[in-house]
Design brief:
Blueprint: H1 3-22, E1 53-56, H2 70-75, E2 81-84, H3 101-119, E3 124-129, H4 131-134, H5 136-142, E4 149-155, H6 177-184, H7 186-189, H8 196-202, E5 212-217, E6 237-241, H9 242-245, H10 253-258, H11 261-271
Helix pairs in contact: 3-5
């Protein structure tokens, strides 16, 4: 990595964080009224935003920390927003998304049903970061989710697995490493490029009919690599490279999901395409 990138990336993250802090629409306050928070089961979708939004965290994430910026961003725009915990391992608090991904998809299935029952909506929209942008595709494809989901927006999703910048390619050279990974953290093993889980997930095509797909990626991603493997193929797919919207956005895998308001603006466009506006560097202030 070039030295200037080492300097600019944390600086960009700092500036984006500051923008989140100073723009009132994105400010999350612990003392906010329940109607302004997320996971509010008395929230009823409006005619403008008729579908609840379910946020799906990434590996090592959880239902709160992953969404401290995006959840209030969407709530302030009139959405009923919900988030779940999934993929928990016994004795491992806070850090989720480590269990078998097919079982995590079953947890998502149960949660979406709960949200739809509470809101009275017939369909939900899903927004996921990292594994949370890929795992729902199993729910859509194998667990009947396509009938209950209008759109899936993936932020830096590892849709075709990851090499972790090439590190995953070293596993075969260490006897027993792959077995240990699968036994200890099956959710990680499932995400390695070429895994049995991903082979099943992507067989026969990336998408299912009736669902609108959006993928938002950053070329500086160091986790879901190579970054272009995040993109999907299909007739109803919108693949977005963040740097084509704002060339000076240096967000990497974590920042794009946790605090990048440029990416958030594109999420809002995907959720309400009929009222979409151009996403630019200035979207950090929108």
């Amino acid at each position: 990595m070039l030295p200037w990138k080492r300097v600019l990336r944390p600086l960009t993250a700092l500036l984006l964080t500051a923008a989140v802090a100073v723009v009132p629409a994105a400010t999350a306050r612990a003392d906010s009224a329940p109607s302004r928070g997320w996971n509010n089961y008395s929230c009823k979708p409006s005619a403008t935003h008729p579908r609840p939004v379910v946020l799906v965290h990434g590996t090592f994430g959880n239902s709160v920390d992953n969404w401290l910026s995006l959840a209030p961003y969407l709530v302030d725009r009139g959405y009923c927003v919900y988030s779940l915990d999934y993929g928990q391992l016994p004795g491992v608090p806070l850090f989720n998304g480590l269990g078998p991904i097919d079982k995590s998809a079953e947890q998502l299935q149960t949660f979406v049903d709960k949200v739809l029952a509470a809101t009275g909506a017939t369909k939900a929209d899903l927004v996921g970061h990292s594994q949370g942008g890929m795992m729902p595709r199993y729910y859509l494809k194998f667990l009947g989710g396509a009938a209950k989901v209008n759109a899936l927006v993936g932020i830096a999703p590892d849709n075709h697995g990851t090499t972790l910048s090439g590190l995953a390619n070293l596993l075969p050279y260490f006897p027993g490493a792959e077995d240990l990974l699968s036994a200890a953290t099956p959710g990680l093993a499932d995400q390695v490029a070429g895994s049995a889980f991903l082979t099943k997930l992507n067989a026969g095509g990336d998408t299912v009919s009736g669902v609108h797909y959006t993928v938002i990626a950053t070329k500086y991603d160091e986790v879901a690599t190579p970054y272009d493997t995040q993109f999907l193929s299909g007739s109803d797919v919108h693949n977005v490279l963040l740097q084509n919207l704002c060339s000076v956005d240096l967000s990497e895998h974590v920042a794009i999901g946790l605090l990048d308001r440029i990416a958030f603006h594109e999420v809002a466009n995907a959720l309400d395409p009929s009222h979409a506006t151009a996403t630019t560097c200035a979207s950090v202030f929108s």
